[in-house]
């Protein structure tokens, strides 16, 4: 979607580029971005940036897998032909920071008071900070919320969406009892893909993946969360539920009218509300993540951020791009186009939520307050660890013993944590 985006004053900060760059770099800026609506919006506005700065921006746009492959090859080789990098703080951020791939932006983010780094939410900023150094600026955020069908609730005699996980369990069972052809609940089931959405259940039961270098996925709280998440899908999920669903498959079940409740990232909401994609668009409602024994603790995370390649020879100009692309004006325009941001002021601005369903905006506001800043273990080998800590989810869904699986997963996860301390 092409949107009209204003241009913040790009050169006002006196940026040094964060690592001694004098600002005399190339007038051609090389920016590597992921396939995302955020990227399409930025590309549509680049003409203004180039006109006012005199820079020429060359954009390389790749799918997530291609992006990771290119970063793995080029950054490991010390390549300098990438200036600005769009990256996933929770998936590869720790690896990149630990390996020194990301420039220190600590001075840059403080240089321009009008740009206002303090406006960014603490949770996402914490995830783009490594050992006290700011290494990225969050551009897209996500929280887990409850999607639900208003008509199916009414049919089951329910007057409001569930506020607690116990109420969710009861409501899901009631919906399935009222219409056996409709699942009471659907969510991701693949052991890796499900980890991020399971995380909110884990936190709301009072658990976490690890603490101070010690794996905790076999704590009493974690075992209860595994049993609850898997049991909800086993008892009230789709008939013959598979254990290889990521969000597209789970979302499809919901949007085809085959499920009443669905916990998922808020950033995917248009898949459920767009009549071109959803058969139930006019009956979809949103609510905050239901509270568990420890309260409602959904994740509030930066799914994507911008950083600067530490080996770039053009860091001052790279910062000019980031400063512009993450300005209040650009962020407001992005959010109005459906891209959830990390800026507090944009969420507080009625314009910032004008294109969102009101109940979704309210759910997001509630989630941001108590949100946890990660939705997976914060480790270098994220993909491998997700496979490990996600296995008890599959065991619970298939009716096996998630507690025993959690003990096994905890031992395996601890080995990863120990290796990182060496």
TrEMBL record:
Superkingdom per UniProt: Bacteria
The record ties this protein, via InterPro entries, to: Bact_solute-bd_prot1, SBP
**A Pfam family this protein belongs to?**
SBP_bac_1
CDD domains per the record? PBP2_TMBP_like
Protein name in the entry = Sugar ABC transporter substrate-binding protein
Specify the species.
Answer: Planosporangium thailandense
């Amino acid at each position: 979607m092409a949107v009209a985006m204003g241009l913040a004053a790009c050169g006002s900060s006196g940026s040094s580029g964060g690592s001694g760059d004098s600002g005399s770099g190339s007038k051609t800026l090389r920016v590597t971005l992921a396939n995302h609506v955020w990227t399409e919006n930025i590309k549509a506005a680049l003409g203004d940036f180039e006109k006012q700065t005199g820079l020429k921006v060359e954009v390389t746009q790749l799918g997530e897998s291609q992006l990771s492959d290119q970063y793995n090859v080029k950054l490991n080789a010390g390549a300098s032909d990438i200036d600005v990098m769009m990256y996933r703080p929770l998936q590869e951020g720790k690896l990149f920071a630990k390996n020194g791939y990301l420039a220190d932006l600590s001075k840059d983010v403080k240089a321009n008071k009008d740009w206002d780094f303090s406006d960014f939410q603490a949770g996402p900023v914490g995830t783009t900070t490594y050992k006290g150094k700011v290494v990225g600026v969050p551009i897209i955020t996500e929280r887990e919320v409850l999607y639900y069908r208003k008509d199916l609730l009414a049919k089951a005699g329910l007057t409001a969406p569930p506020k607690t996980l116990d109420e969710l369990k009861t409501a899901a069972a009631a919906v399935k009892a009222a219409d056996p052809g409709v699942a009471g609940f659907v969510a991701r089931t693949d052991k890796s893909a499900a980890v991020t959405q399971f995380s909110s259940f884990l936190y709301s039961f009072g658990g976490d993946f690890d603490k101070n270098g010690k794996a905790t996925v076999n704590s009493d709280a974690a075992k209860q969360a595994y049993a609850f998440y898997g049991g909800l899908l086993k008892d009230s999920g789709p008939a013959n539920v598979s254990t290889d669903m990521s969000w597209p498959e789970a979302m499809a079940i919901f949007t085809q009218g085959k499920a009443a409740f669905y916990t998922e990232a808020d950033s995917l909401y248009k898949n459920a509300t767009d009549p071109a994609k959803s058969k139930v668009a006019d009956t979809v409602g949103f609510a905050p993540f239901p509270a568990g024994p420890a309260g409602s603790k959904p994740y509030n995370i930066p799914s994507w951020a911008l950083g600067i390649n530490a080996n770039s020879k053009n860091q001052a100009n790279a910062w000019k791009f980031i400063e512009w692309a993450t300005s209040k004006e650009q962020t407001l325009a992005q959010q109005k186009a459906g891209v959830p941001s990390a800026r507090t002021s944009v969420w507080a601005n009625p314009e910032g939520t004008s294109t969102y369903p009101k109940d979704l905006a309210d759910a997001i506001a509630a989630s941001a307050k108590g949100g946890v800043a990660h939705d997976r273990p914060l480790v270098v080998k994220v993909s491998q660890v997700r496979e490990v800590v996600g296995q008890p989810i599959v065991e619970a869904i298939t009716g096996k013993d998630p507690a025993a699986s959690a003990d096994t997963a905890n031992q395996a996860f601890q080995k990863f944590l120990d290796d990182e301390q060496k």
